[in-house]
Amino acid sequence: MNKPPTCPICKKLLVGEGVLQSEFFPFCSERCRHIDLFRWSEGKYAIVEPLTELPDTLPPPADDDVE
Ligand SMILES: [Zn+2]
Questions:
Q1: Cα 54 from chain centre
Q2: Is the pTM for the entire model greater than 0.85?
Q3: For the structural domain made of 1-50, what CATH number should be given?
Q4: Beta bridge partners of residue 6, listed in sequence order
């Protein structure tokens, strides 16, 4: 007995013709796919380092521009 696939985001049943071939599979829609990508990237950045708010005011790297 196969469990019917469900969207991991909104738990909607993925039923209907072509749904398994959908470009959004295993999500039900582009929206849910984006939500998942967003969550995933948030987690990734949180684990690596908090790079979400880089200050724009950093001085440029010291240039060895000797004349
Ligand atoms: Zn969904």
A1: 20
A2: no
A3: 3.30.50.10
A4: 13
